[in-house]
Amino acid sequence: MHSAFSKLGKTGWWMWVLALLAITLLVAGFVRDDYRLWGAAGLINVPLLWHRYRYGMGEQLVNPFEHIKVEEELLSVGEALFPVHEIRKVVIDTCDDKGLFQLPYNGGGQISLVFDSHYVDDLKTYIKRTIPDAQIIT
Length: 138
Known about the structure:
By secondary structure, the chain is of the alpha+beta class. It contains three helices and seven strands. Strand 2 and strand 3 form a beta hairpin.
C-alpha cells in the first residue's frame, strides 16, 4: 500500500508478539508462584496493548503540501508518482475534523493522506489549478 500517512495503519507483527508475551507472562504468574512478578507485568501490559491496538498511538496530522506535489506533469503523493493526464478523480474532504486526500482510481485505491483540516480549501484550490481535468469529490 502506498501511503504518505494512513490513519488505519496496519498492526505490526511485533504487536502480536508483545500481546502473546504479555498473556504468557500473565498465565505463568497464575500457574507458578515464583513467576508472580512476571504475571503482574503481563496483567499491566495486556490492557495497554489492547488500547494501542484499538485506538492507535494517535496520529500526527501533516501539512499536505509537504507530501502532495505536481511537477513536470507528475503528481507525487509521498513516494508514489502518477501522470497528471491519468488523474480523473480526487477525493478531498473532511472527516472527524481531519482532512482526507485520496486517489480512488489510481494506485489500487490505496493512495491516501490524512492531514490537518484547515488545509482542505487550499488543497482543493491547488488541485484545481494544477490538475484542471480532475474532478474533486467531497
